Fold each of these.
Amino acid sequence: MKDSSRTPRPKMAPKRPEAVTFGPALHNAWQLHADRISFVRQPLAPQPLLIDARPQPIEIDLAHSALVVVDMQNDFCHPEGWFAQKGIDTESARRPIPVLQGLLPAWREAGGAVVWLNWGIRADKRNLSPTVQFKGKRRADAVGYAEHSPIDHGASLVQGSWGAQVIDELELAPADITVHKHRLSGFWDNEFDSLLRQQGITTLLFAGINTDRCVFSTLQDAAFLGYDCVLLEDACSTPSPAFVTQGVLYIVELLHGFVATAAALRLSLSRS
């Protein structure tokens, strides 16, 4: 006899296949479904963060912000790097290290993106103008771009070389982004602008070296391109005279963006 006391097991609806995504970020992707392709993006929830800055306090959206760390590389910062072997004092280049060691973990933990913007040139130097090549060498007996120093760690600042790597004291995380440049500004002749826009980044906070050279050149171009720009003055450094930095800070506050500190940013992160 059939046991009528048993409850029939309900039929399960067939499991729908999950959508496949196509895009550079989860919030900027198409969704491929069984019956359609969806162009509808999944927006990121805003993450407002208030930071003390000059000339006014600012509120950024962590979900659309990136900390850009400029040129903290062996050839500039290491005692056996290209600059040190040229006789250039590395003290100023190393000054941002402890500041960044404190800031980076807090920034990442809050969900902020990190971009390492590094010199990384072609070994054949074919896209480096005469001006760039001369300013990197200046004398016939000196060591220039893509050349070998007496303590030979490889060709100076060539992409993939020891000298082009970020110094060991600063840790790269798997989610960090690395962009190679071959000009003072990080926006020339590479993918930096496209990469930021595809990730939905609208606000850039700048750290690294040198304040008046690669940092300022990149920040200025970022402002020209419509990004929100914040210079973290205690996370930047330069061997140039103090009045040069004061001039950069003045111009940034006046025209290009805002000046804040890593200390103020960390304080805001701790309160969020």
Amino acid sequence: MNNNKTTKALALPTRSTWIGPAAFALLAFAANSLFCRLALVSGGIDLHSFTAVRLASGAAFLLCLVRWRQPGKSVGGHWKGGVALFLYAWLFSIAYVQLGAGVGALILFGAVQITMFACSWLKGDRVQPRVLAGMLIAFAGLIALLLPGANAPAAASALIMVISGIAWGAYSLIGKGSTNPLADTAGNFLRSLPLLLIPAGAAVFAGHANISVPGLLYALGSGVLASGAGYAVWYGVLKQISAQQAATLQLSVPVIAALGGVMLLSEPLSLRLVGTSVVVLGGVGMALSGRKVKAM
């Protein structure tokens, strides 16, 4: 009996096994915000075409990767994963027309955190007091950012980004049941492709379809590197951590995106954004400190 307990304890994933891949995935998430803003600010591509190129290139890259690394292995995934991925990506692009990189990421991942915590709680998972306190502090930072004021984001775009965050939270929760992260991510991307007829039709109807070489490169960078590779790695991380921890980790992305927006897009670094980012990161640190990862 003691031997079984020892074996189970040794099998528990330690922080060192997932922290590196998690850091890569979080950097990829921030890069998506920057790629999207770079593409839309430059006017090199319309938001609908950006979404289409992003998902299509991500699907092609992942399919080639599956064929190379896992010959004979069929793609996995689910239709619900494909739908959640599409909704997140399309609404993400729509919202970023008016939102800065850091502000958009803060709204997005604030909604992600709330979605994942709520679903975890509804499933009956126990929430430790420290984790709950950290989540509430981070949520308070998000609310402070969204309050009306001179630096408040556009309300409609903020709401769209919230819905995008809910879709990404659902996508992350679906990924916790993944047995083959690479094949499942590839399958989800492939299943999102038929839905691209919706933004394609919107672009044609609105007469705003536009693709330049720089815009295409930004969309390919978002699809292949930040989305395809980043999401496959993230699905692997999700197998080793709890839903609460996954939700909290992602709240570090807005700070990375905000710094990138300042350096690459000359976006203003307002005191409001700095203050709310500090509050959010403080909540993240509190939620993660002292927690042990459970086997999933």
